[in-house]
Specification:
Layout: E1 8-14, H1 22-32, E2 37-43, H2 49-59, E3 63-66, E4 80-81, H3 83-88, E5 93-97, E6 100-104, H4 107-117, E7 126-130, H5 134-144, E8 149-154, H6 159-171, E9 175-179, H7 182-189, E10 194-197, E11 222-225, H8 234-241, E12 245-247, H9 249-265, H10 271-285
Parallel strand pairs: 1-2, 1-3, 4-6, 7-8, 7-10, 8-9, 10-11, 11-12
Antiparallel strand pairs: 3-5, 5-6
Helix pairs in contact: 1-10, 4-5, 4-9, 9-10
Length: 287
């Protein structure tokens, strides 16, 4: 569908942003549903962020995704932030409701739906989450309400006490944390049901590395890696060799994008269309 004077504009803001897969995902979804919408990438420097949000109102841009380094910095320029994004102090989706800018976070629900969409049952399960940054925090918040036990290990111990304490105030002591070191991995992987890497370890060009030694992986484990470039990280390859169920980072990307799409449009996102578009783009970029 060719853009017209009635075309609704959506986009992503960040710095850098040229690498983003979001235009591929959302434009494929709009085309599949024959919606008169277009999705663009806008590079926005930190000192231009306030002007960009004013421009969103003035130009009637219907919705924006927000990526690094703006996820926290956008909050003062919004009219309202939903509770999850408020807890996380992070917004990755903005909806323009008649000039009122509403902030949401779909990172956690993206991970949760990626797990559920791949048949993972979370009740009565122990989850081992690696990382303590923004992505890990969002995933932890989404999972803490669903699982029996959540263990968070991070290479830098400073973030863990605050994160576990704030989660346990809401989720009745289900969350523990510690330093990400070999002894902690060995101890916690013995009875873990799901392992999630929410760090950048394994991301291109550092794709030869993994935080988990292959001998710690087992066939009864489900392994999800939030890294999607490369499509198969070292952790994913090792998990497959161990016979574990594997969920790639593309799944979380698709489901968080689908959640944004549904916030903006009120329509169910065409998940399979978005998955095919993302995989085609990634495979093309890596061949």
């Amino acid at each position: 569908m060719k853009p017209s004077g009635k075309t609704k504009v959506y986009g992503v803001i960040g710095d850098p942003v040229a690498h983003s897969l979001s235009p591929t995902l959302h434009n494929a979804a709009f085309a599949a549903l024959k919606m008169d919408c277009i999705y663009l990438a806008f590079q926005v420097k930190s000192d231009e962020l306030e002007n960009a949000l004013r421009g969103m109102r003035s130009l009637g841009i219907a919705g924006l995704n927000v990526t690094m380094p703006h996820k926290s910095a956008v909050i003062p320029f919004l009219d309202e932030v939903e509770p999850t994004a408020g807890f996380l102090e992070s917004v990755n989706t903005i909806s323009n409701n008649g000039g009122k800018l509403l902030g949401f976070s779909t990172d956690g629900i993206g991970a949760l739906n990626a797990l559920k969409g791949n048949g993972v049952k979370l009740s009565d399960k122990k989850i081992l989450l690696l990382g303590g940054g923004g992505t890990a925090k969002a995933i932890a918040y989404a999972l803490a309400a669903e699982v029996t036990k959540l263990v968070i290990l991070n290479r830098s111990p400073q973030k863990i006490p605050y994160l576990t304490e704030s989660l346990n105030r809401q989720f009745s002591g289900r969350v523990t944390g510690g330093l990400l070191e070999p002894s902690a991995l060995l101890k916690n992987l013995k009875d873990a049901d799901v392992l999630i890497n929410a760090t950048s370890v394994g991301m291109h060009p550092d794709d030869a590395h993994s935080l988990v030694e292959p001998n710690l992986l087992k066939s009864s484990l489900t392994v999800m890696d939030v890294v999607y470039n490369p499509l198969e990280t070292r952790l994913v390859k090792d998990a497959k060799k161990a016979g574990a169920q594997v969920i790639s980072g593309v799944e979380m990307l698709i489901h968080q994008g689908a959640a944004s799409f549904e916030i903006w449009t009120g329509k169910p996102a065409p998940i399979e269309v978005m998955r095919k578009a993302a995989l085609n783009k990634l495979v093309g970029a890596q061949t």
